[in-house]
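Subject: sequence -> structure tokens, single chain

Hey, anyone have a minute? Need the predicted structure for the following. Not urgent.
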Amino acid sequence: MAYDRKRFESVYPALARDILSHTKTYGTPDKQMDRLELNLQHNTVGGEYIGGMMVINTYAHALGRGLSESEYHQAAKLGWVFEFIYASQIVSEDTKKGNEYRNGNPTWHKMPGIALLSINDSSMLKCTGFLLLKKHFQNNPHYVELVDLLHESSAQAEMGRMLDWTIARREKGDDFNIFTSTNCETIATCMTADFVVRLPILLGLYLADAMTPANLSQTQKVTTPLGQYYHFQNEFLCSSESERSVKQVDWYIKEGRCTWTITQALQCANPCQKETLKDGYGCDNPAKVKNVREIFAELQVHRIFHEYASDLLEKIRKEMAGVDESEGLKRAVFEDLMEVMAKGR
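Reply:
Had a minute. Here:
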């Protein structure tokens, strides 16, 4: 398993120098260069790197052997391309949500002198990802496909975020029919399954020259339910009654987010319970938020979620067992990923 955080992180300094050297050619003043360097360091270093390391792991499994030093570095560079583009989405997300901390550190927009300039910094992070891709992969026979894949996956992720936030920002009194399982699954698929889970695997397959129609189809079949499971698990926090869980659930309620919990609750609730949900969901009123949470408890949504998650895991395992490894895609890619995800929860 090629999930070695320290080794992956050791590749970063040279890539940061590449970015800074290139942007210096634009005539960027020293003060702004320092700001860019801090942006890169603060927003990309110190995370979990699951996506970036997934690129390397997929590449190694597809080749069916350990990687040479040069092969590892090339795969790590592509992994960092993913990490820079992903970081741009995280910075944008934190700014919109008003999040104060991420990975134990202040979020970028909360740093001194940043505020809404984080929007530009988010765009810069995405641009740096594509600058690195061009510098290190423009001679790769799959360069055009890599560019297209990154753009397409980014568009899918942003579409998921748009759906997520436009539902949460709906006008008070709008029809609650918008809280559907279909919309909930679309958000999870676009934001997590397609971008966070599927994209790094496809990048690794391209690098190994193993991106075939069959492998694309097989990857999609596994990563869609796997990404949904990961998304809903993080969202649901099924450790349930901890103080952190209650705060997280309350935040989703106040924000009026299209979560698995509210879509299931609306399906199970009686008319009286539905009225309580409609009155309090998306409302920044502690008493009404508590009422909604109590309805969730009455409906035993935790039990329903465990049953749903168990069925979804069974589907994932079935799809994994059916993977045809003859064209380079290995079951171990998904097995390793599930192990890493389980450790991260």
